Amino acid sequence: MKMKKLVALVSAVGMLAVAVTGCGNSSSDAASTSGSTSDSASASTSDSAWDSSMDITIVSREDGSGTRGAFIELFGIEEKDASGEKVDNTTTDAQITNSTSVMMTTVAGDEYAIGYVSLGSLDDSVKAVKIDGAEATAENVKSGAYKVSRPFNIVTKDGMDNEVANDFISYIMSTEGQAVVEENGYIAVDDVEAYAGSKPSGKCVVGGSSSVSPVMEKLVEAYKAVNTNADIELQTTDSTTGVTSTQDGSYDIGMASRELKDDETGVTSTVIATDGIAVVVNNDSDVDELTSDQVKSIYTGEALTWDEVLK
Fold first, then answer.
1. Residue 45 falls within a domain, yes or no?
2. Residue 237: burial class (beta carbons within 10 Å; 0-12, 13-18, 19+)
3. Per-position b or e across 149-169, b if 16+ CB within 10 A of its CB
């Protein structure tokens, strides 16, 4: 009887050991399998190639943007209809962004996206493509090799008598002011002279184009260092608001990244710089160069996938 109990006990212990060992191996195998699956998924994700058969994510600016106005004109996306009216043929499938920074963020977050920004605002979060064989650089804009460019304008109401605004404009159009323009990647105006303003005290409101705003911010900083009596408020909106708010007196100086329209009267524009428009894609995109016609085909909705563009 004792011998049977002993045999039963030994058998039970052996079975328990086998069960524990089996559980341990199962857990280990599961962890190993899980690790392998995770590693495989990670490798698959990291090794995934850019696929030109994917749909193009088209990103454009809002109505009223001077950058959009210049872009659609320069690439022939804007055309005149039978009555002579200008028609913007940008596809309705385009995602609309309301500022340069949002445009950059949107393209940077989508590897199949295309957009456009001020050359002076370009950074390494996105990739500027060559257009018709020319790189988007300030040097190429100045030489005429890169033809996608437009003026940066300031707008003032006819008869404007704000002393600070007038003195600030004198600074912008001086040797010192144009040096700031050039330092920030834009094409400066020629034939300027050293600043010799009166440095008055008071307030000036400047507002408008989000493309002009970055260089204007630098100009404001530089001017305030020269004239500590000045209080300049900078508001970033869009070119159309820059013009209309100057017309109604809300802005002393408006900013517009385009020419004045025929119906925008009662104000005068002054070119303070020339800027290129960089066509940008995601850094992971295989696209490095496009023709003007290819850009137009994308933005009018004629080409829907990158394959159709690059064929």
1. no
2. buried
3. bbbbbbbbbeebebebbbbbb
Half-sphere exposure of 216 (CA within 13 A, CB side): 29
Q: Report the half-sphere exposure of 107 (CA within 13 A, side-chain side).
A: 30
DSSP conformation class of 183:
H
Closest by CA to 281, choosing from 127, 71, 59, is 127
Residues 155 and 145 in one domain: no
Give a yes or no: residue 10 inside a domain: no
Domain span holding position 271: 151-275
Nearest to 120 by CA among 129, 128, 131, 109: 128
Mean pLDDT of the chain: 88
Model-level pTM greater than 0.85? Answer: no
Q: Which alpha helices (H) appear in 119-200, and where do they start and end?
A: 138-143, 163-172, 175-183
The Cβ of residue 102 has, within 10 Å, a number of other Cβ atoms equal to 17
C-alpha distances out from residue 190 to 26, 72, 140, 150, 273, Å: 78, 28, 17, 16, 10
Residue 164 has pLDDT above 50, yes or no: yes
Q: What angle do CA 307, 110, 46 make, to 5 degrees?
A: 85
Same domain for 157 and 252 = yes
d(CA 232, CA 224) in angstroms, rounded, equals: 8
Residue 124 lies in a domain: yes
Q: Are residues 144 and 85 in the same domain?
A: yes
Same domain for 211 and 160: yes
- Segment 69-95 shows an average pLDDT of 95
For 30-64, what is each residue's pLDDT tens digit?
444 444 444 444 343 345 799 999 999 999 999 99
- Do both 160 and 261 map to the same domain? yes
pLDDT tens for each residue of 223-258: 999 999 999 999 999 999 999 999 999 999 999 999
Name the pairing type of β-strands 289-290 and 149-157. unpaired
Q: Are residues 206 and 232 in the same domain?
A: yes
Total number of domains in the chain: 2
Q: Is residue 23 part of a domain?
A: no
pLDDT recorded at residue 10: 40
